[in-house]
Amino acid sequence: MLVNGTHYRTVWMQGQSVFFIDQNALPFSFRVHEAKTYQETCEAIKDMRVRGAPAIGVTAGFAMAQAFLQGADIELAKQDIEATRPTAYNLFYATNRVYKSMSPVLEAQCIADEDVAACKKIGEYGVSLIGSGFRIETHCNAGWLACVDYGTALSPIYVAKQRGKNISVLVDETRPRGQGARLTAWELYHNGVEHKIITDNAAAYFMSRKEIDLIIVGADRIARNGDTANKIGTLEKAICAKEFGIPFYIAAPMSTIDKKCATGREIPIEERSEDEVLYQTGKTAEGMLERILVCSPDSHASNPAFDVTPAKYITGIITENGIFKPGELR
Ligand code: MRU
After folding, report:
1. Residue in 80, 242, 23, 104 with CA at minimum distance from that of residue 234
2. How far is Cα 64 from Cα 151, in angstroms, rounded to an integer?
3. Measured from the CB, is residue 193 less than 6 Å from ligand 1?
């Protein structure tokens, strides 16, 4: 995707270093960060400077390649990398592929290129669901920042825009980290897609007023029966969509499907720091980044990062191999 006229991938490897767009700095500043060792790359995944299941997967593949180049203990490195984030299946898909490969760097590069190709295809299949004039809701950020390029849920939206379809997007803010308000809105703005940010609580209101025609979200892990883990809040959007008869689609590459996982009950859910709920970071009038407490000072918070949407709420899953009903995945 283009940022101020220059084409970027979200993450890439050059020599022994992994370079990535620092997503914690967005939307206020655009920075590319260099991780020189696999340990530094692990920190970037943990801190969510690189985030989004496909991007996490590709970065983990590069971290494995770095570990080989560093001459590190590979078993230990694999454990370290896999301990960074537990839910996104793409991470384990990538570490296992690179671990088994005779050419770790080439294999990691190959995973990155495959992700780009898959996301492009997701856009080409998914655009068939979008009519001109459609108002589309999306949750969290499943755009090109969450992948290497193009995105998953946003890829069909970008193709629709390129084909001249008159579309607009309702962007859930996605508390606590605000990936919708910060990242999806930034992406859509830079690609000239009409959009509005809505509070996480507003979706049912818009659905009940027939102001949403289609919902497309991404996925962090999909079980064999189609149950899908995605950013917290996805489940309630899916339940409301069924109530109001709005098509609810998941967009994800095949590398997000965990064939060993029979149902959503087996998907591990990441619990993140309560600070993500208690504090917010924003830009002051003077242009400084500031972190402020936004909750009652003596209260604690619970912060599950994902929920699981049962297959019965999912209209279809858009992949690089076509659009499937959840039950067809088996
Ligand atoms: O915690 P994050 O930001 O890494 O969460 C992942 C996501 O961005 C979403 O859940 C997304 O819809 C799936 S990744 C394309």
Report:
1. 242
2. 23
3. no
CA pair distance 324, 72, nearest whole angstrom: 41
Question: Angle CA(147)–CA(324)–CA(236) in degrees, nearest 5?
Answer: 70
Look at residue 212 in the predicted model and tell me its pLDDT.
98
pLDDT in tens, 238-253: 999 999 999 999 999 9
Domain with CATH 3.40.50.10470 in the chain: 125-269+304-328
pLDDT at residue 112 in the model = 98
Q: State the distance from the centre of ligand 1 to the C-alpha of 111, rounded, in angstroms.
A: 18
- Among candidate residues 115, 172, 200, 220, the one labeled active-site is 220
Q: What CATH fold (topology level) applies to the domain 125-269+304-328?
A: Rossmann fold (3.40.50)
**Is there an atom of ligand 1 within 6 Å of 218 CB?**
yes
Cβ within 8 Å of residue 241, ≥6 positions away: 207, 215, 247, 248, 313
H helices present in the chain, as ranges? 38-46, 53-70, 74-82, 89-100, 104-126, 155-162, 179, 185-190, 203-208, 234-244, 275-278
Catalytic annotation present for 220? yes
Task: Establish whether the linkage from the previous residue to 268 is cis, with ω within 30° of 0.
Answer: no
CATH number of 2-119: 1.20.120.420
Q: Measure CA 109 to chain center.
A: 20
Its pTM stands at 0.97
Q: Check pLDDT > 90 for residue 82.
A: yes
- Domain ranges in the chain with CATH number 1.20.120.420: 2-119
Residue nearest atom 8 in ligand 1 by C-alpha distance: 52
What is the helix, strand, coil percentage profile of the chain, to 5? 40, 20, 40
Whether residue 215 has its Cβ less than 6 Å from ligand 1? no
Decide whether any atom of ligand 1 lies within 6 Å of the 250 Cβ. Answer: no
Q: Which atom of ligand 1 is nearest the CA belonging to 220?
A: 13
